[in-house]
Amino acid sequence: MDLRNIAIIAHVDHGKTTLVDALLKQSGAFREGQAVAERALDSNDLERERGITILAKATSVEWQGTRINIVDTPGHADFGGEVERILSMVDGVVLLVDAAEGPMPQTKFVTSKALALGLRPIVVLNKVDKPDAEPDRALDECFDLFANLGADDGQLDFPHLYASGRAGWADTELDGPRQDLTALFDLILTHVPPPTQASDTEAPFRMLATTLGADPFIGRILTGRVESGRLKTGETLKALSREGDRIEQFRVTKILAFRGLAQQSIDEAVAGDIVTLAGMSKATVADTICAPEVTEAIPAQPIDPPTISVTFGINDSPLAGKDGKKVQSRVIRDRLMQEAESNVAIRVSDTPGGEAFEVAGRGELQMGVLIENMRREGFELSISRPQVLFRDEGGQRLEPVEEITIDVDDDYTGAVIEKLTGQRRGDLVEMKPAGAGKTRLIAHVPSRGLIGYHGEFLTDTRGTGVLNRVFHNWATYKGPIPGRRAGVLISMENGVSVAYALFNLEERGRMFIGAQEQVYEGMIIGEHSRDNDLEVNPLKGKKLTNIRASGKDDAVVLTPPLQFSLEEAIAYIDDDELVEVTPNAIRLRKRFLDPHERKRQARAVG
User: Fold this and answer.
1) Nearby residues of 95 by Cβ (< 8 Å), 6 or more positions away
2) Does this model's pTM top 0.85?
3) What is the pLDDT of residue 42?
4) Are 561 and 513 in contact (CB under 8 A)?
């Protein structure tokens, strides 16, 4: 059967997973009457809750006698490590662009990787049936984007379609019949070349592992595209590292291929196809799986380096061990090493003492997803404030700079520009009207300046602004950037919070906890209205006497406390604070719980 391998790349919420749903349905991948969830490829719980694709996943459809392997890629730059590996498996890309928003930062990031690999894109202008759609402008912006990224003449001469993934149609003309996705299927068959490896079936078997997984029945599994040769179940293979060193030799126990949403066992894998192998015990991502006579490893696509680091430690608060089952540093280390093995964009290193581990990655969202997965698995952790990773080149200190794209109401443009270019050391690159009373700002801002900024941004824009960010380059260190200005309210007692005490503390600042919540000494329970930290007593109740007062007591009505999400909590804390994460709670606390140690540190800082 003829083969086509394609990846669908797009910005967050531009509709690529919905489009894949429509491709699966119209190709006959589902039987009649089969119950299929919306965004079927977003199978992870976090993906469904957040509405984003985190893990790259493959599927396949048949169209007119040709098998099309489709890879749904993450749209957020924090998960770019997934995208870079996946692109090495495909021969073409479908670039999905929202007809109203046009190409966005994540589109630029992934497209630059695809163009560098020589892939010729197909542009699909999605959501053209929306009232604010401007497909012609979006198409011009796509051309400009390709030109700025150094596309060659063949890549600039790209075909395009107008589509609505939710309605399930794509046409070559904007006023086409709008019936189905036949035009997209046909364009994939004619524009995307078949795998060049497909003709190399007589050479020794070789495959580059791009994703690692585990199956409860067959164990460790690796997925990749077969570069050459054929493979049958039961044959013996070996694994080579990137340097060509032999890692292990093993017998293939199972070969799986993507068929619709499921993986089916097949008898033989051939060059050009995307398959999953089982039977290995040590081989991992970027290793070459090959026949015993092969001696050279397949070159692996380089991965962009991490830009931030977060320290994962044991939970040593007074409430440790009450929620989670996995609290030992050894168990935490094993889980982090397992994550680093399957996610090449993450690096894990031990810190002095061995009680904490430094995890380096792409961004706050990537760290937040890892921590959220761990807390759902029963872990208890202490998480530090993210720190930016610096480089030293030629005696200069370099720091990561991100390109941010902001769509904001015209009324709030001044406040946003002042924050970015003043306090956060950013440079405004472009400013243009985006229609409907909005302005689009593009700026280059140090990664340090964006830690903790999102909450301020939503406040400054009254919740109407949209901010997208992507790694841009390394630039000369831009000097100090002020952190959080407000101090915090710290509990000075252990026990259960009292409504009367919290009511009297509200004039001191915003509260992070409500009544009848467990607190401990050193726990952060609110934000101070001034710039210094203040120790308070949230357990102090009302003094009772046997003297009756005239009238009745006023009822205590508390302002609802500010509830942090995991990413918001990590971005909010200061360098001397930690986020305590358990399966049932997210708490903030001072790094030094002992009051004498806290005072000593405060004097040292002062």
Assistant:
1) 9, 10, 107, 111, 114, 121, 122, 123, 124, 142
2) no
3) 47
4) yes
